UniProtKB/TrEMBL annotation:
Organism the protein comes from: Triticum urartu
A molecular-function term among this protein's GO annotations: RNA polymerase II transcription regulatory region sequence-specific DNA binding
Entry's Gene Ontology cellular component terms: RNA polymerase II transcription regulator complex
Domain of life assignment: Eukaryota
Protein's name according to its UniProt entry: BHLH domain-containing protein
UniProt-listed InterPro entries: MASH1/Ascl1a-like
Chain ranges passing through the membrane: none
Amino acid sequence: GLTTTALVVSVQDAATQLDQLDSATAYIKQLKGRIDHLKRRKQAVFSGGTAGCSSSVSAGDYKAQTAALPVIEVRHQDGTLDVALASEAGRPFRLHQVIAVLEQEGAEVLSASFSVVGDKIFYTLHSQALCPRIGLEAGRAAHRLRGLAAAAAVSSSVLLT
C-alpha cells in the first residue's frame, strides 16, 4: 500500500508542476507580447508617428509637440528644479548657457546630460536651490530658457541663409 500512495502523490506533484509550467509559459508569452507592443510604440514615437502615444497625450498633441521644437519643461518641487529640453539636432541648446541661466536664478546644477535620438536632442538637468531659504524662481528660469531657445532659432536661421 505504501508504494501506491507514493506513486499517486508523485503523479499529483508532476501534474501541479506541469500546471505551474503552463502558467509560467502563458505569463512569459503575455510579457513578450507587451514588450513587442511597447517596442512598436517606441518606434512609432521616434519615427514621428502617433501610434505610440500614451492615453495621456493625444495624437494631435504629440504632432504639435514634435512640430514645435524646442520643448522646454521646468519642474520645481521642494527646493529642486528639474529641466527637460528637446530640440532639433540642427538647432541645439548650448548646455553651458542653460547651466548659466539656472545658476543665475539661484540653482546649483547637480547633473546635466543629453542624448541624441534621430534628429532630436533631449537634455535633462537636475538642480537644487543654492540657498534653500531664498529658493528658486521656476517661472523666471523657464522664461529665460525660452529666450535662449528663441535666440538659438534666430541665430541658426541667420546662419542658414
